[in-house]
Amino acid sequence: MATFLDRLGRSVYTGRRVALAVWLVLLLAVGVGAATLSEPTSNDISIPGTEAQAALDVLSERFPQMAANGATARIVVGAPEGSTLLDPSVMGGAQELLTQLRAAPQVLSVVDPMQTQQVSPDLRYGLVQVTYEVPAGSVSDEARDALLAIAEQGRAQGLTVEIGGTALQQLPMVSAMEAIGVLIAALVLFLTLGSLIAAGLPLLTAILGVGIGVGVVAIASAFTQMASVTTTLALMLGLAVGIDYALFIVSRYRHELSIGRAGADAAGRAVATAGSAVVFAGATVVIALVALAVVGIPILTQMGVAAAFTVVVAVLIALTLLPALLGFAGMRLRPKHDPEDEGSPSGPIHRWSTLITGRPVPVLVVAILGLLIVALPALSLRLGLPDDGSADPASTQAKAYELVSTAFGPGVNGPLLVVVDASASTDAPAAVTTAADTIRALPDVVFVTPPTFDTGGDTAMLTVIPASGPASEATADLVGAIRASSGDVQADTGATLAVTGQTALNIDVSQKMSDALLPYLLVVVGLAMLLLMVVFRSILVPIKATLGFVLSVIATFGVIVAVFQWGWGAELLGVHVTGPILSLLPILLIGVVFGLAMDYEVFLVTRMREEHVHGATPVDAVVIGFGHGARVVTAAAIIMIGVFAGFVLSEDAFVKPIGFALATAVFLDAFVVRMTIVPAVMALAGERAWWLPRWLDRILPRIDVEGAALDRSGDGPRPVEVTAPTAVSQPDAGS
Asked: How many angstroms separate the CA atoms of 237 and 284, rounded?
């Protein structure tokens, strides 16, 4: 592979104008396609194969007038203190509000609380149910503004008006977050490379890659419903890996220039060595992301495929555009001193590596125990999906949620919809009555509404109000109890029960995530370990890499629980309400972090392997390889942390925890696992680190990652460290 990549790097360098033109044309085509074809994204989550989704599909089919998938607004209307909704002056204002709502854009139906008796016991508050013709992600700005304006007019008349539900959900705004991440990356790049031109190249290529990746995702939205968070994840990873991959190759290129290679030769060698590591690192990320499809939840599959595509684009740009830009920059990127001097005994990196390799057992004990202690809060992990109760307390959504809990009871914020299919019953009305009576007798049930039948008269819908809130374990137990009672009802009447609604959907998402976790881990870890065996020709290195990743992830879970569930330091991060952890987060975190963790594993350990192959003792190979690679890996990790941390500023309940979790995981994995535990384990293992059974060595394909074939061919002047396999061995010490 190194030979092919060397030729690719040289040809792109010399044909830089053609390469640049091709990428610019591609960017223009994607931009035009995105501008003309993109459709609105959605915050809806579909969970095929679950009871809640199946029941929701039945509702959509048999109760089309309900618009079961349509956006909703739950409006709390309150009378002034000392009066009730029945007072003539208050009733007139409330009726005017209902009239305005019925005439508002995209509104399908408005339910008067007086007709449905959704009035608080003190008659001061009423709950207005508004259903829209379109899903939440398709509610127009005009419709959303009209809803807020109507509420404001009601307040002007002395009413209390607060709005909950999905109609006010807006797509996350990420422009400011992007800017913060890019600024952090620019600063770190300049401090690492010491050159504005050198620092600008990774930024330029990463932004171009993100533009193409996100543009293609926008085009895809014309052909399938896309989740709003899909673009955000693609943006996060596109920026992070795009900058990192380019940094590794630019650093290697500058090293090759410093030891006397001509521009085309240096570009070829940089792409052949650092580029090989980029290919394999990118492959592990892609495997981890695409494997999210095994979970069987469309939103996760979309997020994984979209993010994987941006990673592929980042790799292709690093291999086929970056060398062209290096050609335009020419010798202006030559550093003042050989970057290989960074590993000198007087440097802090060398002192750190000798400290670790000299006392590997104490270092391992302290590092592993530290991560396990940080992971302890993860034992209390609870999963769920965000609702209005987790919104900013100053928002109308949070105020509506609190008013409903106080005036009507917490269960009204999370009603359960029970679909009774009595088509196999000889007496459908009697079967539905039996089902309703069975549910009323269950613990934690406050109220069961009269049934609403479909036009055929054999399917009914019941609304069940729990005594507990939607995130309560008691409510989850109630859902399980209703489902468990379906068998008895069917035996007695022939009718079946199915529970749906947002609360039931949340419960099913969490359960599906838990069930898919082990198969997902087996797929990802199995494929990635096989790939790492091919790269390193070792059994221990892939196992060590995987176990280190597990430590990083469980410690990250501990930090997430401490902040988002327990509230430690929550105010500093703008977390207004604590509660269950986003149910999509654990498996998404595992997928993304496994791929990113393997990036640094490949860049660091490949250099150690090269030193060992060239005759260094096991400990010396660790010290030398670590000395050459640690500085740039550190810079790359800080850049990635900065990009992810920028998204913590988002107020979106999906984006904030994802950004925080990824930033935390990269910090723990890069600095505790890869920069501390990895060299300690490699020093302890010695020669055994590179052991591979002969039969397995014969089976596994041989891929030249170190560029040994280039040395045998006598290509170009042979530098001091000619076969460094990764760009991490070239920090710019002299700039």
From this structure: 13
pLDDT tens-digit map of 81-109 = 889 998 988 888 889 999 999 999 999 88
* Cβ–Cβ < 8 Å for 445, 462: no
| Residue 345: predicted pLDDT | 60
Domain boundaries, the chain: 2-37+172-386+507-729, 72-164
The pTM assigned to this predicted structure is 0.79
Q: What's 227's DSSP letter?
A: B
pLDDT digits (tens, 9 = 90+) for 476-518: 899 999 999 998 899 989 999 999 887 888 888 878 887 887 8
Would you tell me which CATH number, out of the four given (3.40.120.10, 3.40.50.2300, 3.30.70.1320, 3.40.50.300), belongs to the domain 72-164? 3.30.70.1320
Instruction: Measure the CA–CA gap between 486 and 508, rounded to whole angstroms.
Output: 17
Closest CA to 271 of 287, 256, 286, 285: 256
**What burial letters (b/e) apply to 252-273, b meaning 16+ CB within 10 Å?**
bbbbbbbbebebbbbbbbbbbb
122-150 tens-digit pLDDT? 899 999 989 888 877 678 889 999 999 99
Nearest of 498, 422, 501 to residue 459 by alpha carbon: 422
Q: Is the pLDDT of residue 442 over 90?
A: yes
Contact 272, 350 (CB under 8 A): no
Tell me how far apart the alpha carbons of residues 267 and 701 are, in angstroms, rounded to a whole number: 26
Q: From CA 681, how far away is CA 687, in angstroms rounded?
A: 12
